[in-house]
Amino acid sequence: MQYFVARRKFQQARKPYDVRDVIEQYSQGHLNMTVRIKELQRRLDHTLGKPGMFLPEKGVDKEYYTMGARLIRLEDKVLQMDVKLENVLKILTEHFQPKPELLQKPSEYSSRVTVMKRLGVSMDDSQ
Q1: What pLDDT does residue 127 have?
Q2: For the Potassium channel voltage dependent KCNQ C-terminal domain, which residue ranges apply (predicted)?
Q3: Does the pTM of the predicted model rise above 0.85?
């Protein structure tokens, strides 16, 4: 008798699931996954900014505080500084032409003597 009861329970446990239950569980899991993906995408858009949002021709990225907008502003500042430094370097090279003797590499023996002569120190005073 116990054998027949156990066999019936085993067969019931082995029965395939109801198709409606399977589909319902699948769709519930799929819905949860899509909600999580949308929330993650929203958070990424809020943090980094949407792609194409900060194109240079728009010029309205000043109102955004996302990482993308901040990086664009930083790159603009670095480019402006680069242009300014190039202009300063050009002005300095135009006004202060380097002396040809400074461009030559000093010999290893005369470097101490040359430095002392430029400083106006005589050889007798250094000893």
Answers
A1: 45
A2: 1-96
A3: no
